[in-house]
Amino acid sequence: MLIDWFTVGAQALNFLILVWLMKRYLYQPVLQAIDAREKRIAAQIADAAAREATATQEKEEFQRKNTEFDQQRAGMLGKAADEAKAERQRLIEAARQAADALSAKRDELLRCDAKNLHDSIIRRTQEEVFAIARKTLNDLAGVSLEERMAAVFVSRLQAMDAAARGALAEALKNSAKSALIRTAFELPPEQRTMLQQAINAAFSADIHLRFETAPEIVSGIELSAGGQKATWSIADYLSSLEQGVDELLAKPTAPAKTPA
After folding, report:
1. Predicted confidence (pLDDT) at residue 141 exceeds the cutoff of 50
2. Domain boundary residue among 121, 142, 163?
3. What is the pLDDT of residue 237?
4. Beta-carbon count within 10 A of 223 CB
5. SS3 label, residue 67
6. Residue 220 in contact with residue 232, Cβ under 8 Å?
7. Strand ranges for 80-208 from DSSP E
8. Closest CA to 196 of 218, 162, 219, 221
9. Could you give the 3-state DSSP secondary structure of residue 5?
10. Mean pLDDT, residues 18-25 taken together
11. Which DSSP symbol is given to 141?
12. Contacts for 149 with CB less than 8 Å, ≥ 6 apart
């Protein structure tokens, strides 16, 4: 069999031309399209990786901020609880102080009321005693209360023990000022004269007297000179009554029930 080299050469040339054409117009565009697609996919992958990194960073930032927020919220809640506790204690202390002040004010009012009642009872008792004494003396003896008290005072001076009487006599004689007679009432001239004579006789001296009224002396008479004094008063007989009144007022009263 004979080989037709011309035909073989022509076919080889055609094959080379076909390969060139395929490479030029088919294979090269396909490679370029594949390369472009690979670059596009790589870019998309890189963008996705960047987005994922950003999302991861944002997630971590969110978690960090969320943790900080939880810590701040816990701190604020703790601070609010401490402030509420402190305010509660302050209000309780203020209420206790107000209650103590109210109780002290109530006690003070009770003491004032008790003192006023005590003073009123003593004053009324004195008035009644004086009235009864005057009426009794006038009815039975025909003398006034003032006259009888002056007579009792003189008898008390005469009955003084030697030491007290001597000290008072020394003070009366050596005092640079006149001896002072104080009474709860204004003595009439005859009573002053009687007292003057009785004191002169009791101390065997001419004693110069001056007279003053002193309402605080409960229907009594007081003689003073040079720091020494002699006193007689109906208050001595009222002391037991006053003590009884004090004991009565000192008894604790049941506290008033607060309505529910």
Report:
1. no
2. 142
3. 59
4. 24
5. helix
6. yes
7. 179-183
8. 221
9. helix
10. 78
11. T
12. 219, 220, 221, 232, 234
